[in-house]
Amino acid sequence: MKQILGYFLGFAIFIVGIPALMWWVAGTPSFADIPAVRLCLAAVFALAGLALSIWSIVYMKRVGKGNPFDAMGHEVAPRTKHLMTDGPYKLSRNPMLSGTFIYYISVMIALWSWWPLLIFSIVAALMMLQVRSEEKRLEADFGQEYLDYKKRTGRFL
Q: Count of CB atoms within 10 A of residue 29's CB?
């Protein structure tokens, strides 16, 4: 139950809530007012970002037997049993977040306003605090294995 709640909260906050806030601060534009080229480009970024995030979640669940997500030190879903270094985690130490950021870029492309960029900047700054907290936990959980992984794999790319 805890795991389902964690995924639901993640979806509600990061996939629906933050983009809705971006849309609202941009003045709630109609999709009809967004040029087709921008909508198409945004759709490509949205699909790519969501695909990376979903791949990461599924891979983490199947191979890692858990989830790395803590909410500032509080376990939201069961933690992984194994350090993930393959699949999407070979590309990035944080592929779920990288995918989410790509998704937010799609929203910013569609809305084409400074206000969503401000929301993105705030969210990115807060998520960096989260990432640093998770990195400390992963280092404590996996020791040298995680330190070696950090050396060869970028935080986001």
A: 13
Closest CA to 98 of 47, 41, 49: 49
Closest to 137 (Cα-Cα) out of 149, 146, 128: 146
The three-class DSSP label of residue 126 is helix
Sign of CA dihedral 80, 83, 88, 89: positive
Q: What is the pLDDT of residues 45-104, one digit of tens each?
A: 999 999 999 999 889 888 877 765 555 555 555 667 788 899 999 999 999 999 999 999
Which of 93, 84, 102, 103 lies closest to 130 in space, CA to CA? 93
Any idea how long the chain is?
A: 157
Domain ranges of the chain: 36-152
Q: What is the dihedral of CA 5, 142, 56, 45, to 10 degrees?
A: 110
> Is the pTM value of this prediction over 0.85?
yes
